[in-house]
Design a protein that fits this description.
Elements (H helix, E strand, L loop, with lengths): L2 E6 L7 H16 L3 E6 L5 H12 L7 H32 L4 E4 L1 H4 L1 E3 L8 E4 L2 H8 L3 E5 L2 E5 L6 E7 L5 H11 L4 E6 L20 E3 H9 L7 H10 L3 E5 L7 E4 L17 E19 L4 H11 L7 E4 L6 E8 L4 H10 L6 E15 L6 H13 L6 E5 L2 E7 L3 H12 L3 E2 L20 E5 L2 E10 L4 H11 L4 E8 L4 E9 L3 H10 L1 H4 L4 E4 L2 E7 L9 H11 L6 E5 L2 E7 L3 H11 L11 H5 L1
Parallel strand pairs: 1-2, 1-9, 2-6, 3-6, 4-7, 9-11, 10-12, 13-19
Antiparallel strand pairs: 4-5, 7-8, 11-12, 13-15, 13-16, 14-15, 14-26, 16-18, 17-18, 20-25, 21-23, 21-24, 22-23, 25-27, 26-27
The structure holds adenosine-5'-diphosphate, aspartic acid (ASP) and magnesium ion (MG).
Aspartic acid binds next to loops.
């Protein structure tokens, strides 16, 4: 007998017939001798409909930050109704075929969360009631996506309803699986499993039988909405076995593999320690090309030439420039490839006004799980470096790692500052944590391609080049709980920098207001916003073992005449910002470049119905 958590997404329970189909699957699992806890989403597009209604009755004038916060509380009350409809219906459907069942909403179960509306993190799930109902032979049907806020004064659950953020039912399911120590958490959806990309855009996307947690975390946080990234974080931290399958088929689906035994604390499910180690790599040289023309093909030409000579480029950062029509690109390479890289770079005729080389650099990184969703972690890293008087030259972020390029001479004090801030051990650079399989040459270095159309870009211009500025800018956003990624910092001349990053489009107005408020105090210039961009990314844990992967991505875009406006890389991913109207084409050409398509089209039953 196994204890199984099954989560059914919106399309799997979209109407009465689908609810009955799901009921049959649950019944079959119980009849096979298992105990089953079910977590469900709202039916079909119910949540979108509720959001639409909220917008229709809300003021559309520029809202203050307090007005936004007030609206968020009522929004949670509204959105939480969607899942409640499904649990009641599914439980009735089970009872109708003689299967004892009980429906419970988030507050009845006590899925206790932080007191932050619309994006609450789960603190703990009370397992006792669930276990008691299971012991009575019942299927427990729980509303996903919702919880009840903790009262910060008493430390006890309050009566305030919270939601976890769109797509959050996956996270509810894995959290519940961790709390009741389930044998497996099965996520049922409308595709056969995790694919190389979204089959609604590339129908011949291919199934992956397995994917590592690290890769899945990146893919999910870079826009592959098949899983809520926080669900993968919990699975990784608590060693929850997880798979993704279709609720229309009996196929095995995709297994999410985790290299570790869970060590998390069940009393703080989603607010565990997220920084696990710090590492420093002194084997780095930084090359920067300033003021190169902003047109398709430049990045491709540069990185292809470097890849052709076998030069392993590590971090790449390209940022927008205040001066229209030009960009800066900076990248790091290992010390022993400097001479060759310098010859290649200087020999290229791509119109850079200046090429600079700096061998006095080191890359310091913090490694953990789920840092993007917690803007406070990056802010704390930047603040601790600033307090030690250390200037940050380049920044690169990913879901599992934040790296800063600093002067090598600052290395030791940087390590000390970060160890103190996060109370973590130092790991040698080589021992860094990304799980990959160096020996499997048949695994494509690129496992998946993701598109995020819900991002907007913000550039803060003329930021004084002194320690602490990146931290101060981030702090404004942290205060309003705004998550950002793809932070890139470029130097437009000797005294000022530009810091650009992407935020969720829904947070754009809030972020702009917050940043503009502090422009004078902090001494930076204009804050420019662009909501018309998308982010396309490739992910693969084996990318680090091959040179030229980024170059191939840039070439594919250049060949399709797609301009890259920002680049950010880490060991496990490369992301490019492109114009939104070219986003789908960008995804298709990249998927094609890495030969990721299979030989048949994937059916998405819920899309066929429309
Ligand atoms: P659910 O309602 O079951 O939670 P979602 O709509 O949240 O389902 O997620 C499933 C959808 O995710 C699929 O229909 C597909 O369009 C999309 N998707 C995006 N990227 C991928 C990917 N790499 N693999 C599988 N599905 C993906
Ligand atoms: N119903 C919620 C949403 O649509 C949560 C979920 O489906 O995961 O975002
Ligand atoms: Mg979903």
């Amino acid at each position: 007998m196994a204890l199984i958590v099954q989560k059914y997404g919106g399309s799997s329970v979209a109407d009465a017939d689908r609810i009955k189909a799901v009921r049959d699957r649950i019944k079959k699992t119980v009849d096979a001798g298992n105990q089953v806890v079910v977590v469900v989403s709202a039916m079909g597009k119910t949540t979108d409909g509720l959001v639409g209604l909220a917008e229709a009755v809300s003021a559309n004038h520029n809202q203050s930050l307090t007005e936004i916060a007030a609206k968020e509380r009522e929004m949670d009350l509204l959105l939480a109704t969607g899942e409640q409809v499904t649990i009641a219906l599914l439980s009735m459907a089970l009872q109708a075929v003689g299967q004892p069942a009980i429906a419970m909403n988030g507050s009845q179960v006590r899925v206790v969360t932080e007191p932050y509306h619309t994006r609450a993190r789960i603190l703990y799930v009370e397992p006792d009631q669930i276990k008691a109902a299971l012991a009575l032979g019942k299927v427990v049907v729980i509303a996903g996506f919702q919880g009840v806020a903790i009262d910060p004064e008493t430390g006890e659950p309050s009566t305030e309803i919270t939601t976890l953020g769109r797509g959050g039912s996956d996270t509810s399911a894995v959290a519940i699986a961790a709390a009741i120590e389930a044998d497996i958490c099965e996520i049922y959806t409308d595709v056969p499993g995790i694919l190389t990309t979204d089959p609604r855009i590339v129908p011949k996307a291919q199934m992956l039988a397995e994917i590592t947690c690290d890769e899945m975390l990146e893919l999910a946080s870079l826009g592959a909405k098949v899983l809520h990234p926080r669900s993968v974080e919990i699975a990784r931290n608590f060693g929850v076995k997880m798979c993704v399958r279709s609720s229309w088929l009996d196929d095995a689906g995709t297994v999410i593999t985790s290299p570790r035994i869970g060590t998390g604390n069940l009393k703080s499910l989603e607010v565990n320690r997220f920084v696990e180690t710090v590492s420093i790599d002194y084997d780095q040289v930084k090359i920067a090309l300033l003021q190169i023309p902003d047109r398709p093909g430049i990045a491709s030409q540069l990185f292809k030439s470097l890849a052709d000579r076998g030069i392993n480029v590590d971090l790449i950062i390209q940022a927008v420039q205040e001066t229209e029509g030009v960009n800066d690109i900076a990248f790091t390479i290992p010390q022993n490839q400097l001479q060759l890289a310098e010859v290649v770079t200087r020999g290229l005729e791509i119109g850079a006004s200046l090429v600079t080389v700096d061998s006095n650099v080191a890359k310091i990184s913090i490694i953990g799980v789920g840092m993007i969703g917690r803007p406070g972690v990056a802010a704390q890293m930047f603040t601790s470096l600033a307090e030690a008087g250390i200037n940050i030259q380049m920044i690169s972020t990913s879901e599992i790692k934040i790296s800063c390029v600093i002067a090598a001479t600052d290395g030791e004090s940087a390590i000390a500052a970060i160890q103190k801030a996060f109370n973590v051990p130092v790991r040698s650079h080589q021992a860094c944590e990304i799980t990959s399989d160096e020996n499997s040459s048949d695994i494509s270095p690129v496992r998946g391609v993701a598109l995020d159309r819900n991002r907007a870009r913000i550039a803060v211009q003329q930021v004084p080049d002194r320690p602490g500025m990146a931290a101060k800018i981030l702090e404004q956003l942290v205060e309003h709980n705004i998550s950002l990624d793809m932070i890139v910092q470029s130097q437009s001349d000797r005294d000022v920098n530009e810091i650009a990053f992407t935020v969720a489009i829904a947070d754009l107005a809030k972020a702009e207001t917050a940043l503009k408020q502090y422009a004078k105090v902090l001494g930076y210039g204009e804050v420019s916003c662009d909501g018309d961009i998308s982010k396309v990314s490739i992910v693969g844990a084996n990318m680090i073992h091959q040179s030229g992967i980024a170059a191939r991505m840039f070439s594919a875009l250049a060949d399709a005449d797609i301009n890259i406006e920002m680049i950010a890389t880490s060991e496990i991913k490369v992301s490019c910002v492109v114009r939104d109207h070219q986003a789908e084409q960008a995804l298709k050409v990249i998927h094609q470049e890495f030969n990721l398509s299979g030989d048949h089209a994937i059916e998405v039953p819920s899309a066929l119905k429309k």
